[in-house]
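Thread title: Can someone regenerate the structure for this chain?

I was given the following input by a collaborator and told the matching structure tokens would be attached. They weren't. Posting the sequence so someone can regenerate them.
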Amino acid sequence: MVLAEEQVVARTRSRRSGPRRWLRSVEWLVEARLHPRASPVTVTVARDLAERMDFDSGHVRYCLEGMVVRLGLSRATISRHVAYLRELGSLVWVERGSRKNVRRVRGLGGYAGTATVYGAVIPAVYDHAQGHTVVGSGYAARIVIDQRGAAPVSAEPVEAVDNSPVDNVSSEARETPSRTWVREVGQLKVVGGCHYISRQRANRSKPRATHQSIPINGRRRTAGDVRRAERTVRLVRALVSWTQKVPLRRLEYVLRPLTDRGLGAHEITAELMALCSGMDWRPRQPDVYISQRLTAVTAYDQQLAQAPETPLAPGEHAVAPMSNPEWAAYIELKQRLEAESAARPRTDADRAAARATWDNWPTVADHYAEAPDDALDLYGLRLCQYAVAQADRLEDRSLV
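Best answer:
Regenerated them for you:
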């Protein structure tokens, strides 16, 4: 796993990536079991980061509070799985958040802390397993694709050309052509010229999209349907206290997946209470939380409705990592070495290396929860006390 000092953009060994290829690499790394604690929850956290990630730079703001609301997970759980992504070599710190007032630096009033910014990166182990050719090293490295065997751009017949005597030299006199032509992934192909369209012409050329309401059971939504839904939602808002901050019209629009099914006020109330069952906190933005949870539930129901024998589309899922015999042998060797390392007696050098940094306190807290005596022997009393206190503090803040 990647050490703490290599989890920053200046010293990382992983290469920069965009959100789509980055998410595929994360799914592969988790499925390959390269991290002992990574799980499908790690992929869920990575998907939330990929949806908000900048396509050009691969940077994304942490926004822990928003992730808690969107994913329905505690702050401690999200922090741990983000740490797993850093240890896998899939995330690096671009800017660490702090309590420094950035508005004062800009000469503005009020207070706003410095945001934590992460960068999406792909570790070298993924490129090695996929057979990628990497040019460069570290964050600025790139992969290349060999296109020597690619089909020609145009298959039209080419007319013969009467070359001049200067061009008809012997093959021995010609300079050896390049035998390799590679194209960098993400490189733009310039066709030529300056492409400029005035704003007036662009507005005339773009077709205007008309707003269409979502139909109900195949028929068009009417004003009577909206009024009946508003009466139902008005009673729902009176029964569910944490939805009362949302305007009635907005809440009616968010709850349309339930009202379109013909559910009554009490049935919708039961659905909303089920969304927050087992939670001691209430969402700050109830409309956003309800919309995202209903979308997730609908997608899950659609997956269950599909037959498991339905063939997948080509390229829909990547090849399973463990299907490669060489990679499976590598994982088996890695697990055997880890077992031998756990079986041998612990030395003072192991303890000193484990206590060198306190940034991995989530791992220390998990280790202490599973095996307190072993964690005290490896990390020491002070580091274990600090890790447990930090985990308890995040849990208390998530319950507020």
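The first strand starts at residue 15 and ends at 16.
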